[in-house]
Design brief:
Blueprint (H helix, E strand, L loop, with lengths): L7 H6 L12 E2 L11 E3 L13 E6 L7 E6 L13 E6 L2 E11 L8 E7 L1 E5 L6 E6 L4 E5 L4 E4 L9 E6 L10 E2 L4 E8 L6 E11 L2 E7 L7 E5 L5 E5 L5 E4 L3 E5 L10 E5 L11 E6 L5 E4 L3 E8 L2 E8 L18 E17 L5 E17 L4 E15 L8 E5 L5 E8 L5 E11 L2 E6 H11 L13 H11 L15 E9 L2 E8 L13 H7 L3 H12 L2 E8 L2 E8 L1 H18 L1 H6 L7 H25 L1 H49 L7 H10 L5 H7 L7 H9 L4 H35 L28 H11 L9 E7 L4 E6 L2 E7 L9 E8 L3 E8 L2 E6 L11 E5 L2 H11 L18 E4 L3
Parallel strand pairs: 2-7, 8-16, 17-25, 31-33, 32-34, 41-44
Antiparallel strand pairs: 1-3, 3-4, 5-6, 6-7, 8-11, 9-10, 9-12, 12-13, 14-15, 15-16, 17-20, 18-19, 18-21, 21-22, 23-24, 24-25, 26-27, 27-28, 28-29, 28-30, 29-32, 30-31, 33-36, 34-35, 37-38, 38-39, 39-40, 41-42, 42-43
Organism: Aphanomyces astaci
Protein name: Vacuolar protein sorting-associated protein 13 DH-like domain-containing protein
Family: Belongs to the VPS13 family.
Length: 927
């Protein structure tokens, strides 16, 4: 692989052997680690003598850069193994050894070195506290080994076609071999060990887990949760045994016993026989039947009533007399076992979390309203019930330039309702009697700009490159950490509890998904110099980004995940998470066509069909409803249905064209923004400006002077020549030609979108898309970068100021809202603005400017009355002799505040004067 990280001096001093030279076969480790190749690490055990088997290694195809490993035992007579894959088979005089390997990267100095660790294929671990085990590996040769308490035993099967099965027993007199256990079957199993001397039995748990190429077989003690239980509630004597197994158990009347399969590899069927009731009766036993204990069911028989039921994670086979059938449980809701003795309730009005990056700037604001939590314990703490309810939940996108201010919101209440009932009497498992989670339909509106900023926030930074070379101790520490691999995995000390769900239900999830990338996401790059942007013009990456914005715009894709329900499920935690992941992945793949049909570049066929379906339903339903009343009503219904169908058709056509044009506009805007950054033009606002800027980017002469007022560095070829010399002429011409094509196309597309949007909203406006943030984004001073307590008034003013282009980069002083007049008075350091507030959703802009006065134009500020402030400012025309005024009428409590706000204004030309005080005369006539 690659060489380890080293300085230039170290690299020059290393003599690299020629690629064609083949290394000699050596014992492990065969290759020194400082060459950066594969490090072969043997297992960490002490070798008793030199005659013990060691592995030799060779590699081939080094000239082609391909490394293939082959192994053999020490000695020239041994044959080479097959090329290493997940496991390799080493042959020696008729014996076969299966060896696994782990290939992973090292740590620190060796992070570019791949370490190959040879491990045994099977590792037996005895986690019992008071018993040693005898393990029978091969029944034909009676090969066995003793596994002491808390000991580990690596094992290699010596036959190529071995079944990989073992049998176990306690290393004590009287214990016999158990049933065969297959080592390639991962999961948890239970084996029954029998003692023929004192007739005792023991249930031992076996966990088989695949970690890399190695199977880990762990033997643990029994628990109070047997897999099966047989209950004989009849007056007969019962004999039970596994199908095709001669070992049997006898149950007397009203006797129970814990049970598991004696031979796990044979059919899991239980044979039940009824023995004669009298001791001197020599008649043959009566066969009751053969039953499967994995399925919950009732089996009607002539002699006894047989039922398989679930008692937690234990399957119970219950036998009763036919005269006393099983009582039917009452219909209705099951009452909890025991009355509650402890009840805890907690109710929070609201909980909110704000996510701020390192700039710092606020990205996400999450709010939960009316959060209720309830916990109940029954008598003796046998059962714990938890209930969580969230009335409403919303996640806001706090990026100011986003097109989707709300990331997630729910349509109904409560947004989240979860109930969990847990049994605490089981110590070895997690017994969850009831789990129910319900989510209301939700709307996801995802902005690609927010995703990029969150990814940049959570991605770990690159490793810091130190100028100083690492010491010998650092290299030794990194080497020791690199060779640990799978051999350094700690022993099995803690046991992960399995989960049992008596009833588990996740309600269906309904979501409406919208995705787009804001066209203003590239504004951050506008501050770069012309030198850096000149290299990026017409790059493949920029073209793909512009095309991606067009192709990935999705609007209201209706997604539906079906419910996930389990009953009587007993699985490990990893298996449960894997099944949940597979379920929701399958549901997501099943709805891929819905996402494709909701792409705006295709016209959003899903929404087109939704609009036309409503018109067709009205066209059919309205005449039918009128036919039931009278012939005249039928005529009116026909006219109404036809008009609604025509309206739906026109709306669908306009919406179809609007969505195609708007998705194309995103990509065109992004491409034109990069060209504007390169050429230095301001962003065009009209179709004619697009044509002028596009033409002036290529044409050099009198026309460019006429269109752009001065050639200067505005023309792409000339600007490229100023920045990059003669080598920049060709990129400049290319940028100008792209602008000549893309800018008029962008202007035409913008006009088409505005026209079709106006006509579409005139027919039927989409008011569901109008959602608001819970609160304005947090304001963080860009000069100090300090987080302060959140101020709703200050944040609201900053949000209003950001929507006004002229005042966006000025310091905020204050603002006053007037609900009666639907107006707002905004005061910044350099201007006073009177804004008109538009609350209806069809307005694209919330605030429009009614009038504004700059601080340099102010002459006198007169506080005439407790409700009136008059601003005297310079006229716009020098020849005008009258002094214009602006009268501000406010309530008495707000007028005085505005008067003090105006006194905090400063002139805009601070660099031209030595004083920063405003040359304005303030008159207070109310004193």
């Amino acid at each position: 692989q690659a060489m380890p990280k080293a300085s230039l001096a170290d690299t020059e001093s290393v003599v690299v052997p020629p690629a064609a030279v083949k290394r000699k076969h050596q014992l492990l480790p065969s290759i020194p680690p400082n060459r950066g190749l594969l490090d072969l690490i043997p297992k960490k055990v002490s070798i008793a003598s030199t005659s013990a088997p060691l592995l030799a290694v060779c590699h081939t195809h080094q000239r082609h850069g391909i490394l293939k490993m082959q192994l053999r035992l020490k000695g020239k007579s041994a044959a080479w193994s097959n090329v290493i894959s997940c496991e390799c088979t080493v042959r020696d005089h008729g014996h076969t050894y299966v060896v696994g390997f782990v290939l992973e990267h090292g740590h620190g100095w060796y992070d570019r070195t791949q370490v190959l660790t040879l491990v045994p294929r099977f590792l037996l671990i005895n986690a019992l506290d008071d018993h040693a085990l005898d393990v029978l590996m091969d029944e034909s040769t009676s090969t066995s080994a003793t596994l002491e308490r808390h000991a580990q035993l690596p094992w290699h099967f010596a036959h190529a076609h071995h079944r990989n099965t073992i049998r176990i027993r306690f290393a004590a007199p009287g214990w016999v071999w158990s049933g065969a256990l297959h080592l390639h079957t991962t999961g948890d199993q239970t084996l029954r060990l029998r003692n023929t001397v004192d007739r005792t039995t023991y249930l031992i748990r076996i966990s088989i887990k695949l970690e890399g190429p190695q199977y880990r077989i762990v033997f643990r003690s029994s628990t109070n949760v047997p897999p099966y239980r047989i209950e004989n509630f009849s007056l007969e004597t019962i004999r039970v045994h596994q199908s095709r197994v001669r070992i049997s158990d006898i149950l007397l009347p009203h006797q129970t016993c814990e049970y598991t399969w004696d031979e796990p590899l044979k059919p899991h069927l239980l044979v039940v026989d009824m023995l004669p009731s009298q001791a001197d009766d020599n008649s043959r036993p009566i066969r009751i039947g053969v039953f499967s204990m994995d399925d919950i069911a009732t089996f009607p028989t002539k002699s006894l009533a047989v039922e398989v039921r679930a008692d937690g994670p234990t399957r119970v086979l219950r036998l009763t007399d036919v005269m006393t059938p099983f009582p039917r449980p009452p219909m209705g809701k099951k009452e909890p076992a025991g009355c509650p003795v402890v009840e805890f309730q907690l109710k929070l009005h609201s909980v909110s979390v704000s996510l701020v990056d390192s700039k710092p700037s606020e990205l996400v604001y999450v709010s939960w309203n009316t959060v209720a939590f309830q916990a109940t314990w029954t008598e003796h703490m046998a059962q714990l019930a938890l209930h969580v309810s969230v009335h409403s939940m919303q996640i806001d996108n706090q990026v100011r330039t986003t097109r989707y201010p709300v990331l997630l919101n729910f349509t109904n209440s409560p947004a989240l309702d979860a109930t969990i009932v847990r049994e605490t009497t089981y110590t070895s498992i997690e017994f969850l009697r009831y789990v129910n989670v319900m989510l209301q339909p939700m709307h996801w509106r995802i902005d690609g700009t927010l995703i990029n900023q969150l990814a940049a926030m959570f991605v770990s930074p690159e490793d810091v490159q130190h100028n100083t070379a690492p010491t010998r101790e650092d290299r030794v520490r990194d080497f020791d950490a690199s060779i640990v691999g799978l051999l350094g995995v700690p022993r099995e000390t803690t046991v992960s509890k399995k989960l049992y769900f008596e009833k588990f239900e996740l309600a269906p999830i309904q979501a409406s998904l919208s995705f787009a990338t804001s066209s203003s996401s590239t504004t951050a790059s506008s501050s770069n110099t012309y030198t850096t942007n000149a290299v990026q013009v017409a790059g493949v990456r920029q073209i793909l980004q512009a095309a991606g914005k067009t192709l990935t715009k999705i609007h209201n894709a209706p997604l539906h995940w079906r419910a996930l329900r389990w009953q009587h499920m007993f699985v490990p935690r990893e298996t449960m998470l894997n099944q949940m992941s597979l379920h929701y992945q399958h549901e997501a793949y099943r709805q891929a066509y819905v996402l494709l049909g909701s792409v705006d570049v295709l016209g959003n066929p899903v929404k087109v069909w939704h609009n036309l379906r409503g018109g067709l339903e009205s066209f059919v339903w309205e005449p039918l409803r009128g036919w039931q009343e009278s012939p005249q009503a039928f005529g009116f219904g026909l006219v109404k249905g036809t008009s609604l169908l025509f309206r739906a058709f026109v709306y669908a056509v306009l919406d179809f064209n609007t969505r195609i044009a708007s998705s194309m506009l995103l990509g065109l805007s992004d491409a034109c923004h990069r060209i504007d950054t390169y050429t230095g033009y301001p962003v065009a606002k009209t179709f004619y400006q697009d044509i002028a800027q596009g033409a002036s980017g290529v044409v050099v002469g009198t026309y460019s002077s006429y269109l752009s007022n001065s050639i200067d560095d505005r023309v792409s070829p000339m600007h490229s020549y100023d920045v990059q010399g003669w080598s920049g002429i060709l990129p400049g011409v290319l940028a100008g030609m792209l602008g000549l094509v893309l800018k008029p196309l962008r202007g035409f597309t913008q006009g088409l979108v505005n026209t079709t949007t106006t006509l579409r909203d005139g027919i039927q406006h989409d008011t569901q898309a109008y959602v608001m943030r819970m609160r304005p984004p947090r304001y963080i001073d860009p000069r100090t970068h300090l987080l302060t307590s959140y101020s709703y008034v200050h944040a609201s003013g900053e949000d209003i100021k950001y929507g006004i282009v002229q005042a966006r980069h000025e310091d905020y002083v204050g603002h006053i809202m007037s609900a009666e007049r639907h107006g707002c008075l905004l005061v910044t350091k350099h201007r006073v603005l009177s804004l008109q507030v538009h609350l209806h959703p069809h307005h694209s802009v919330t605030y429009t400017i009614s009038w504004e006065v700059l601080s340099d134009d102010l002459i006198v500020v007169a506080y005439c009355s407790p409700e009136t402030i008059v601003l005297y400012h310079k006229p716009s025309d020098i020849a005008d002799l009258a002094v214009p005024t602006q009268v501000i009428t406010l309530p008495p409590t707000q007028a005085l505040s505005v008067y003090y706000m105006l006194q905090q204004m400063t002139p805009t030309s601070l660099n031209q004067t030595d004083r920063s005080q405003l040359n304005v005369h303030f008159v207070d006539k109310c004193r």
